[in-house]
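Ticket #661: bound-state structure for alpha-L-arabinofuranose.
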Amino acid sequence: MKNKIFPDLLLLALLFLSVTGSAQNDKPIIVDVDKPLSTIQPTMWGIFFEDINFGADGGLYSEMVKNRSFEFYKPLEGWTVDVAGNASSYFVIHNREEEKPGNPRFARVILEYGVNRLSLTNDGFRGMGIKQKNKYYFSLLASSHEKSDIKLRIEILGHDGESIGETTIVPKGNEWKKYSATLTAAKTDTTGSLRIWFEGSGTMDIDMLSLFPADTWKNRPNGLRADLVRLLADIKPGFIRFPGGCIVEGYNLGLRYQWKKTIGDVDTRETIINRWNTEFEHRLTPDYYQSFGLGFYEYFQLAEDIGAEPLPVLNCGMACQFNSAEVAEIDEIDPYIQDALDLVEFANGTPDSKWGKVRAQMGHPEPFNLKYLGIGNEQWGPQYFERYALFEKAIKEKYPEIRLVSGTGPSPDGDLFDYAREALKGLHPYVVDEHYYRSPLWFRDNATRYDRYDRKGYKVFAGEYAAQSKYTGSPENQNTWECALSEAAFMTGLERNADVVFMCSYAPLFANIDAWQWTPDLIWFNNLTSFGTPNYYVQKMFSTNRGSSVLNMTLNNAPLTGQNGIYATAAIDNDSNEIILKLVNTGQKAQPVDIVFKSSEKLGALAKMEVLKSEDLNSVNSPEQPTLISPVDTEIALKGKNLSRVLAGYSFSVIRIKVSK
Ligand code: AHR
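RESOLUTION: The complex was predicted; output attached.
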């Protein structure tokens, strides 16, 4: 494995070079500071969120109760009912489909004939993460029938069933009402649960049984997990693409993502099966649904919170082509296009417009300033481009300022990709989404991919990419250092071609350690903790060191695209007046580099350097060693306008040098 990147002969050559002197044949690398090249878009490095791997429910969305409104295919999935006597007589599920199509089911508790105690236990998403001394908000909708004196006693339980927090609620009246109470946890537990005791006699209807930690992101009710949002905010992403991914397409059109069903009161948002529930035979997850508690309003709010441009992706009248491949007929496409037009109004319209009013009523009278809109996810073939063209025409007519994103299908090459490139010639998307889930070697070899792109052709959105340590879809893929290092090498190629590449995002973003379907993923978490992979740190180092314009950086008049295993780019940051170098050494050996800056200005004598490295290409971060591979900061010295460094083997370095004005 050690020699995986370099074959033996090359290693020998490297060894020779490192003994005899510089691996760059004693020629310096030249960085031309005085003549900045293309602008690097503020959107260059972003993130892509999809509800896969329990990314939303059981992940970013803080709700701790699974199947809170009994809407899963099995209404009691996640719940255990315990009652003296015959349980089915005392706990039943009702359906009011016509009256409340978004949330048809509720449960009825009947305590009579000598039964005066019944309990309902929810085991959360592979347990509930409970933190000692933290407050938890329990709530439910309840309607207490006449003469009922049923009281609710609510407990948080540790993994061993011990009660570690308790409160009570006494619902009154037969109107549906929301009741809430606070619990404080006496202990920490990663696999806790929630138990609700019904005591007394009578009949009570219940729905939307919910438990949230108080310490959500910005302490918002119905909020997001603060540790996970923090990890996203720390990347300082230029944009956030949401909500998918294949989830946008759905297994069939009936199960596609429909943004209008994800806004408004949470108890009216229709729960549907998650497309990833059944996707992989080897990772079946029958308890994976979408409650849409994290819906489009919350996505826009998240984008605003972390300073990222929102980039929603909408269904274009096509279900996932890997699944049912259903398409809406062309003469039935109008409602899909209308959804897109209405979304722009929801995000940007004034509070007196139809959809702007809904946004204002939800608490955000100011617009969300939507600028980008994705039409379809990973669609391919003539059916896609036919439909995309209709969206483009309608949206450009009404909202010419909206920048559209089209796709090219699932692969960065091959027939489908070639077809897409031709079809796109008659269309006008702002950027075109390319996806690559390939080997680490592919990533290193493709650092020059965009050097060859037509400068007059389309602009690229590298919307989904991740090096696969085994193969795409393999459950054995890991976020190894080799994958992350190879992505860093590839990303220097994206940056060098910033005149063609406008947006980039790794995929997928999140994975629940106990409930994932797809690996590798950028951030892993369980119910209490989370950590970034080496790939996360690569993304973060690129994004937080973006720069404003590319600088010409050459060795022997050629860009650094893998000579002796070194990949590198340079940028200038106009805000901080700093030169930013990104240097990737994919070789096992340390490599000396000499850099000469052609600059009419003085350079700072000390530079900041951030290094991510590991001697072992197979190493990974883990819950036990969450920061095993993480950046280390140092200061380094320049000699006038020269910098000499030895780049550690298998390392990625970012160097920032002040330019005096
Ligand atoms: O990122 C996982 C999946 O890969 C996405 O849902 C899809 O767009 C791609 O096939």
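RESOLUTION NOTES: The first helix runs from residue 8 to 20.
TICKET STATUS: resolved
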